[in-house]
Write a structure and sequence with these properties.
This protein has 350 residues and is mainly α. The protein folds into 2 domains: 1-160, Serine Threonine Protein Phosphatase 5, Tetratricopeptide repeat (Alpha Horseshoe); 179-350, no CATH class. Helices cover 68% and strands 1% of the residues. It has 18 helices and 2 strands. A two-stranded antiparallel ribbon has the order 1-2. It is elongated and about 70 Å long. Residues 211-220 and 330-346 have low confidence and may be disordered.
């Protein structure tokens, strides 16, 4: 963490050259790693070096990345005043490097399933950088779910849902775990209106960010959906086969598909006009309120046509999936490892 700005600029220029070299294939990863380690050895508080090194080694070994992030975090703590609880100047370049190390440390703890430790570290980061409240709070919501702290998760996510549609997915999951199926369905139907592509990714109907189009300014929201799916938000759904079947079933019901068609019509009109008029705003609110009604009839039990057994429609969907897998070889990858996270197909619910 050099105090001399010229030295800091020189170090950052070296790092940029390494990044470009690796990207172009001119520099081997092993050499880049060795060069960055040499820079850190020369200046143990060169935090930007830790962030790049973690990215290099993290591609093959998450535990190595965690160790690097922790080293960077501890290096910064050594020069911070004792018992300092923030806030830090997030506009400062050095502080930004420290916060990236801290964020990487939090994420690596969560990736290892050490949710209590990750929650404590994330709360510490909020004290140091209150300006990052929005992003850290979202992570806290999902981490509390993974740790089985559903009431606190709900409190955090309810606030998030006021400005981020993907929080509705996680709230729906909490309702689903509590067997409040009508409420979970209502949450998801609203989530489908504003963030439909998250469901498409989670259920496997969309596999590429390029395979989407909807009239209107979709790109910013879409990026948030993609981020949700690629982090703990997606994991809570894909790690739970029954919950994912629930989402898949609901997204294909006439109710949800009708919602999506109506939302597309509103978006198309707004796009054609250049903005949403008062009529489109009213139409959206009517659709939003309709989707948010908890309808018990939607989630009522149905009869399995083969066994005569009564079950929830998404449970019947799961039965069909199993049959297709056995008879036609479908879903074989899913059968081997459920969510693809190494869990062996086990239910992650607490």
């Amino acid at each position: 963490m050099p105090t001399d700005q010229k030295e800091a600029d020189r170090q950052n220029e070296q790092l940029r050259a390494l990044v470009v070299g690796v990207g172009n294939g001119d520099v081997e990863l092993e050499k880049a790693e060795a060069d960055v380690r040499a820079m850190i050895q020369k200046d143990a508080q060169f935090l930007e070096g830790y962030t790049l090194l973690a990215e290099i080694v993290g591609g093959e070994d998450d535990e190595k990345a965690e160790k690097v992030y922790l080293d960077g975090y501890q290096a910064a703590l050594k020069v911070m005043p004792k018992d300092f609880n923030g806030p830090l100047d997030a506009e400062n370049t050095v502080v930004q490097c420290f916060l990236r190390c801290h964020t990487g440390f939090v994420e690596s703890l969560a990736a290892k399933g050490q949710y209590k430790e990750a929650i404590a570290a994330a709360r510490r980061q909020l004290m140091l950088d209150p300006g990052d409240l929005f992003e850290r709070e979202r992570e806290l919501g999902e981490m509390h779910i993974m740790d089985g702290q559903y009431d606190e998760a709900r409190r955090i996510l309810e606030e998030q849902a006021k400005s981020r549609a993907t929080a509705l997915y996680s709230l729906a999951y909490i309702d689903f775990l509590a067997e409040k199926y009508a409420e979970a369905a209502a949450r998801l139907r609203q989530a489908f209106l504003l963030a439909p592509y998250a469901a498409d990714f989670i259920t496997g109907r969309m596999t590429s960010p390029n395979l989407f189009w909807q009239a209107g300014p979709r790109a910013p929201q879409f990026q948030d959906e993609l981020m949700y799916v690629e982090t703990l938000g997606g994991e809570i759904w894909t790690a739970d086969n029954e919950a994912r079947a629930f989402m898949e079933w609901l997204s294909q019901t006439s109710a949800a598909m009708g919602d999506r068609a109506a939302m597309a019509a509103i978006s198309e009109k707004s796009f054609a006009q250049g903005e949403a008029g008062a009529k489109e705003a009213d139409e959206f609110m009517a659709l939003w309120n309709k989707a948010g009604v908890a309808a018990d009839a939607l989630v009522q039990e149905v009869k399995n046509p083969e066994s005569g057994e009564k079950m929830r429609p998404w449970e019947l969907l799961a039965v069909y999936h199993d049959q297709m897998s056995e008879e036609n070889g479908f879903y074989e990858e899913e059968e081997e490892d459920g969510c693809g996270c190494g869990c062996g197909g086990h239910d992650h619910r607490h």
